From TrEMBL:
This enzyme's EC code(s): 1.3.1.21
Domain of life: Eukaryota
Function field: Catalyzes the last step of the cholesterol synthesis pathway, which transforms cholesta-5,7-dien-3beta-ol (7-dehydrocholesterol,7-DHC) into cholesterol by reducing the C7-C8 double bond of its sterol core. Can also metabolize cholesta-5,7,24-trien-3beta-ol (7-dehydrodemosterol, 7-DHD) to desmosterol, which is then metabolized by the Delta(24)-sterol reductase (DHCR24) to cholesterol.
Residues annotated as transmembrane: 37-58, 92-114, 148-165, 177-197, 237-255, 262-282, 302-327, 334-351, 415-440
Gene (name only): Dhcr7
Subcellular location: Endoplasmic reticulum membrane
Name the record gives this protein: 7-dehydrocholesterol reductase
Native source organism of the sequence: Oceanodroma tethys
Pfam families: ERG4_ERG24
Length: 475
């Protein structure tokens, strides 16, 4: 596992090119300043339908044994009305509100008040105070990296409860899944709305705000780049990682406990989902400092897309395989289980190694070895909002010479493995691979558009050297 000591911008070669009077020059990289009709249409579609999509999936499992077709057939044939389905849906309960409030409060406590201790005894782990990337306004934020610690403490308490204290049943998440959905929505909307108001009245860094003038776009994609409360409570880092990703593995454990309760055993498919997604989650926290340099933190502003997405979309739709397996306990043949495990592990290896190669390359400014050789790269330059010119490098060696986003390819292989654990009886568990393919392909295009705005002709030289995006020779 890679140790990640992030490169400080002060280590980058830079010099001032313009500093003309009081007007602040606007750079073109970062989020869009103007909204095209296609982005606006997509945003309106997502604002209206994403909450319904989540509800539809969860309701299908609750009322239709995870069939996505049967509710439609019932509605189209008049067998049921929307009100019948709605009336059968569990409402918000005091119990769920209590559980959710405690959960979020506990994660806030771990994030804000418990400085990282893990980096003091875990070799190779980078935690504690770390610097993020330089923002378009030229700001470098400091972050308290303590996600791994929060994940460990939370899981130790979970297992201590399950095997020793018995304060609550390990099936608690599954048992309150729909009432918790309403709580997650309340938080998702509240935080996105708060972030919007905050950006107008008390932004953390006014120069890193982007107003397009379109209310829906600004609400969805965010205005503030790095909203914070106080010195350390960073919205993006908190909501991206906790409560959603810490919860991911607990949700899967709760599904496994439910299988045990219902059928007296946990199937090998459920174990595979727990293990493969557990590796992905642990990897995320182990590499949290590296995560500061990913698109989510480096380039996305904080709006509904991240706020609501992290509170609702992620915990509810990324865990569909485990939920499905509670209703359909699939016991895989050993050969199939091994095949799926291999696909998941190879996907994970590609995902991690590709990310590691870029991180190592950037951290050492190219003074490293990739597959035993000095890496090849393209020199490029860009400008921050105050007119400072920075220099950077785009690597063309290792997996980065195979395709421009081979890390996404590995991620997609892992995602497919999760879905395959569920067999082929229903399409619901395959939502994840379909969604990830759309997300990562769109992300590829979005990132490349941004990189082109940032690096200009240097980016063109790079795409000429590495012509494929995801699959060498194909796309
Ligand atoms: P990348 O880690 O690929 O970062 C892209 C950035 O890296 C570019 O904007 C550019 O930034 C820099 N870069 C691009 N090409 C090169 C190169 N050849 N050499 C050096 N630097 C380069 O993308 P993400 O942040 O989107 O993804 C990080 C990981 O997170 C991926 O593995 C992805 O699969 C995963 N992910 C998972 C999601 C999930 O929901 N499960 C969602 C999103 C991502 P710069 O401006 O610094 O040059």
């Amino acid at each position: 596992m890679a140790a990640h000591q992030e490169k400080k911008p002060s280590e980058e070669r830079k010099h001032k090119t313009t500093q003309n009077g009081t007007r602040t020059p606007q750079v073109q990289w970062g989020r869009a300043w103007e909204v095209d009709w296609f982005s606006l249409a997509s945003i309106l579609f997502l604002l209206m339908f994403a909450p319904l999509i989540v509800y539809y999936f969860i309701m299908s499992c609750d009322q239709y044994q995870c069939s996505l077709i049967d509710p439609l057939i019932d509605l189209l044939t008049g067998n049921k009305h929307l009100s019948d389905i709605w009336n059968k849906t569990l409402t918000l309960t005091y119990r769920a509100a209590g559980i959710y409030t405690l959960w979020v409060a506990f994660q806030v406590f771990l994030y804000v008040f418990v400085p990282d201790f893990c980096h003091k005894f875990l070799p190779g782990y980078v935690g504690g105070v770390q610097e993020g990337a330089v923002t378009p306004a030229g700001v470098v934020n400091k972050y308290e990296i303590n996600g791994l610690q929060a994940w460990i403490i939370t899981h130790v308490l979970w297992f201590a409860n399950a095997y020793y204290f018995h304060w609550f049943s390990p099936t608690i998440i599954f048992d309150n899944w729909i009432p918790l959905l309403w709580c997650a929505n309340v938080l998702g909307y509240a935080v996105s709305t708060f972030a919007m108001i905050k950006s107008y009245f008390f932004p953390t860094n006014a120069k890193d705000c982007k107003f397009t003038g379109n209310f829906f776009y600004d609400y969805m994609m965010g205005i503030e780049f790095n909203p914070r409360i106080g010195k350390w409570f960073d919205f993006k880092l908190f909501f991206n990682g906790r409560p959603g990703i810490v919860a991911w593995t607990l949700i899967n454990l709760s599904y496994a406990a439910k299988q045990q309760e219902l059928y007296g055993q946990v199937t090998n498919s459920m174990i595979l989902v727990n293990v493969l997604q557990g590796i992905y989650v642990l990897d995320f926290f182990w590499n949290e400092a590296w995560y500061l340099k990913t698109i989510d933190i480096c380039h996305d502003h904080f709006g509904w897309y991240l706020g609501w997405g992290d509170c609702v979309w992620l915990p509810y739709l990324y865990t569909l395989q485990g939920l499905y397996l509670v209703y359909h306990p699939v016991q895989l043949r050993t050969a199939n289980a091994i095949g799926i495990l291999m696909l998941g592990l190879i996907g994970y290896y590609i995902f991690r190694m590709t990310n590691h190669q870029k991180d190592l390359f950037r951290r050492t400014n190219g003074n490293c070895k990739i597959w035993g050789k000095k890496p090849e790269y393209i020199e490029c330059s860009y400008m921050s909002v105050d007119g400072t010119k920075y220099y950077s490098k785009l690597m063309t060696s290792g997996f980065w010479g195979w395709a421009r986003h081979f890390n996404y390819t590995g991620d997609l292989m892992g995602s497919l493995a999760y879905c395959l654990t569920c067999g082929f009886e229903h399409i619901l568990p395959y939502f994840y691979i379909v969604y990830m393919t759309i997300l990562l392909t769109h992300r590829c295009i979005r990132d490349e558009h941004r990189c082109f705005s940032k690096y200009g002709k240097d980016w063109k030289r790079y795409t000429a050297a590495v012509p494929y995006r995801l699959i060498p020779g194909i796309f």
